[in-house]
Amino acid sequence: MSNMALRNAALDILTRVGDGGGYSHLLINQAIEKRGLSNRDTSLLTEIVYGTIQRKHTLDFYITPFVQKKSKLKPWVLWLLYMSVYQMVYLERVPDHAVINEAVEISKKRGHKGIVSMVNGILRNVQRKGLPSLDSIEDPVERLAVETSHPLWLVKRWIDMYGVDETKSMCHQNLQRPTMSVRINPMKATRERVIDRLQQDGFDCEPSLLSPQGILIFKGNIVNHALFQQGFVTIQDESSMLVGEMMDLKADMKVLDACSAPGGKATHIAEKLNDTGEVFAYDLHEKKVKLVRDKAEQLGLENITAKQADGRNLPSMHEENTFDRILLDAPCSGLGVVRGKPDIKYSKTTDDILALSNIQGELLDAVSSLLKENGKLVYSTCTVDHEENEKRIQQFLEDHPEYEVDQAFFDELPEEARDLPGITEWGLQLFPQDFDTDGFFLTRLKKA
Ligand SMILES: C[S@@+](CC[C@H](N)C(=O)[O-])C[C@H]1O[C@@H](n2cnc3c(N)ncnc32)[C@H](O)[C@@H]1O
């Protein structure tokens, strides 16, 4: 693909994301598949699209002094400016003059002469005069928001919840690319053998501290490797692996995964049961249930039954006191995964958080009756917010005196995770800066 075509594709994706026409990770995947992009093109397209979205607020601060009537610009022109300045500031291997020439060529194809000369003028001014200094922002919270490209309301909310230092680290960590991690399938190979094989094939990888099944991959494309294609490993963030580790699973157990798609944790649970017992995996969306079935099949697991259901209706489908273990990996605002899905940090609102917290409460209430006495229920989210995590659990326990936090959970955490700042009486909030994982909350409750 030519450089021009690649940047045009990037601009299409950015403009669609900006219009609310899709999520960047899905649009990038579609573009890669549709155009059959090479590894080099895939990596540059991903870098430009993610990088531009990830830094959007900072880029806006940078271009504002150079643009008159910014609010009147067509969305594609604004995204072209963001995308170009992103490359000029953050991509050292792309020379500024090449970025400007390509932006001008793209403008010629999409707009009239006035737009072409405006884009050319703005980018040449940025190049000649340099960027405005972030030091000009006096308020330290606003500065943090602009510097790390987070909405101001979110930074303020996190500071109120977790303090300035934790929020600062989290905002900076959210700008880093997530480290790839995979989970080995213990029914097919040991972690040592998989690491040996990957290293022989030129991968830079090491064992995870959070899961004995986890491997961190710093260099190497696992998706193209036979071990991935043959179901020896599956891609999963380490924080999610911790859920399977903390479920206290034993052979022959009957386990409910109420919100299971795409099946990362359901398959982990099934592996831990060593293909004994039974995992009942549900999801609200039929289309997504297929992903759970596909993943189970890819990993060669036969102890998962995946079906469509609203988790809130499960009491009408199963008897009370049926399951030994329940996982509620709840739908959430996703503010812990903004490194990999940067669109999320701009699109979520406090209303979304409150609405999700209500649904989480309804799901918890619904599944709670299905747990056997002395059974254990793990609740998790990939978000960083009290409302959906600690307060959600606190409220549930107030409404359900038959439940309590299982204190053994804290002792069973991996040693490295026992003193984290996110540990409270309600569970563990993992911050992305703790282990370079997603921001993630998990806790384990037991039914007396
Ligand atoms: C955090 S994701 C689950 C990820 C999954 N546990 C995994 O590890 O691959 C939350 C899931 O909940 C599903 N969901 C949302 N509302 C639901 C409901 N009322 N009942 C059941 N599933 C629901 C979503 O479709 C989504 O797939």
Given this structure, which CATH class of the largest domain is correct? Alpha Beta
Oligomer: single chain
Q: What is the mean predicted local confidence, pLDDT?
A: 96
Helix count, per DSSP? 20
Query: Got a strand count?
Result: 13
Rg on CA atoms, Å? 24 Å
Query: What does the main sheet amount to?
Result: 9 strands, mixed
Give the class from helix and strand content and strand pairing.
Answer: alpha/beta
Task: Name the CATH superfamily classification of the largest domain.
Answer: Vaccinia Virus protein VP39
Distance between the termini: 62 Å
The third-level CATH topology of the largest domain is Rossmann fold
Number of structural domains: 4
| Strand residues, percent | 15-25%
- Helical percent range? 40-55%
Task: Walk me through what this model shows.
The protein has 20 helices and 13 strands. By secondary structure, the chain is of the alpha/beta class. The chain folds into 4 domains: about 5-130, N-utilizing Substance Protein B Homolog, Chain A; about 135-175, no CATH class; about 180-235, Sun protein, domain 3 (Alpha-Beta Plaits, 2-Layer Sandwich); about 240-445, 3-Layer(aba) Sandwich (Rossmann fold), CATH 3.40.50.150. The strands form 2 sheets. Strands 5, 6, 7, 8, 9, 10, 11, 12 and 13 form a 9-stranded mixed beta sheet that branches. Strands 2-3-1-4 form a 4-stranded antiparallel beta sheet. It binds S-adenosylmethionine. The site of S-adenosylmethionine has 19 residues, from helix 14 and strand 6. It catalyses: cytidine(967) in 16S rRNA + S-adenosyl-L-methionine = 5-methylcytidine(967) in 16S rRNA + S-adenosyl-L-homocysteine + H(+).
